[in-house]
Specification:
Layout lengths: L3 E6 L5 E10 L2 E6 L6 H15 L3 H13 L3 E4 L4 E10 L4 E10 L5 H8 L6
Antiparallel strand pairs: 1-2, 1-4, 2-3, 3-6, 4-5, 5-6
Helix pairs in contact: 1-2
Length: 123
C-alpha cells in the first residue's frame, strides 16, 4: 500500500479538505488536516462522532444523510476524481475514511453525475 494525497472537493470544485490516505480493499483511510475544513463541516463531523460514540443511532442516520448531502468528491494526486460514499471524519483523532461511489472523469458534468448517483438516471 502506498500513501497518496487527496483533496476533498465540493460541488463548486473548491477544495474542502486536504488529506493523506492509503487504500485497502476499496476503503480509503488516513489522516485529514482539520484546519482545511470549514468550521461548519468540522461541527457536523463532531456531532457525528459524538452520536457514534454514544450510540445515538437515529442521530447517526440523520447526520449521515447531512454528510452525504455535502456531495464531496475526492481528487487524487494523479488528477483523477471520484464521488465518495460513507465518508467518516473523526475530529478527535483527525482520522477519516471513505469508499468510492463511482469513478468520474475529471471533466464530468456534476449535475448529471449527481442525478445518476441519486438513481434519477440510468446508465
Amino acid at each position: 500500500m502506498s500513501v497518496r494525497n487527496v483533496q476533498l472537493i465540493d460541488s463548486h470544485r473548491a477544495t474542502s479538505a486536504l488529506a493523506r490516505i492509503e487504500e485497502s480493499g476499496g476503503l480509503y483511510a488516513g489522516a485529514i488536516d482539520l484546519n482545511t475544513l470549514s468550521p461548519e463541516i468540522v461541527g457536523l463531523f463532531r456531532e457525528f462522532e459524538d452520536a457514534v460514540n454514544n450510540q445515538l443511532f437515529g442521530d447517526v442516520d440523520r447526520l449521515q444523510d447531512a454528510i452525504e448531502a455535502l456531495a464531496l468528491h475526492a481528487r487524487f494526486d494523479d488528477g483523477s476524481e471520484a464521488a465518495v460514499a460513507g465518508l467518516q471524519i473523526f475530529p478527535s483523532t483527525g482520522e477519516f475514511s471513505f469508499r468510492l461511489a463511482s469513478a468520474l472523469p475529471a471533466s464530468a458534468d456534476w449535475n448529471v453525475t449527481a442525478a445518476y448517483l441519486k438513481g434519477e438516471l440510468r446508465p
